[in-house]
Amino acid sequence: MIEWQWPWLLVLLPLPLLIRIALPARPMDRQAALKVPFLDEFGGGDAHIVSARSPWALRIAAIAWLCLILAAARPLWLGEPLEQAVSGRDLMLAVDVSGSMQEEDFFIGKRRVDRLTAIKQVAGDFIRRRAGDRLGLILFGTQAYLHVPLTFDRKTVQTLLDEAFIGITEDDPKTSIGDAIGLAVKRLEQQRDDSRVLILLTDGANTAGELTPLKAAEIAAEHHLKIYTIGIGADEMVVRSLFGNRRVNPSADLDETTLTAIAEATGGRYFRARDTEELDRIYRLLDQLEPVEKDKQYFRPRRELYHWPLGLALLLSAGLATGYLRRG
Description:
Blueprint: E1 2-4, H1 15-22, H2 39-42, H3 55-72, E2 75-78, E3 82-84, E4 87-88, E5 90-96, E6 106-108, E7 111-113, H4 115-129, E8 134-140, E9 144-151, H5 154-163, H6 177-188, E10 196-202, H7 213-222, E11 226-232, E12 237-241, E13 244-248, H8 256-265, E14 270-273, H9 276-286, E15 292-293, E16 297-299, E17 302-304, H10 307-327
């Protein structure tokens, strides 16, 4: 199938004829300025040259003009429609970047790392596996803000997550879980009801923001946003001091009751990640979310065809120009 990009240019086809009618040809002076008795002997070769006023020259010029207009109208060849089924979910990640996330109670290999670094490592693998999903990223501490809007570009989401740092929202240890949920609701409310998912990771309790977590969960449930909450942080770690080693609970501030209530209110689940391996298992479990078929999209391969009539027009024009030069 052929489609014209600028079909209105086809109205220029009769332009040379209109010019010819509006500006009639100047009458030729048939009186020779110089009479040569043996003219045929001087220019016998010109008998085979097509005159610029001959019917053949006019036909060639008309064809060249036709090809030139066809090329200007930008013909495109359209192939058969190809279905592009876009499946998956609109999945938002909300990551806590408050000061408590700098607690080094996780390990990657044998290296002790802080909680945010562990999240980047495991969530990066999760993001790479979510082909077909639109992903977004919310960072929250004292305030919550959209770091990456929903996009199919998983590489960008992963890169900007890797560039996040503790205190990026504000240099304050407070955590606004409710505002993070409210922001996710706002960003996902235009999407299909059965495809909205929020994965929220935090190591503490709600200590900032204008919206309480339970009220935010209620609003999320009304907007059919399913929330999976993940509480991160070890239950126990050994701290060395001048008085010897002592065991402490670095997750004492983790509000598991509220996180569980948020998940249950929205039809999600609460997970507890005490180490990197457990966090990875949680993300692999989240990978089992069934993708939702969205409206099918179609695309037709397109190929430019203008170069064919343009090339023919240039070839015919070159032929006419050569005839003029030889005649001259």
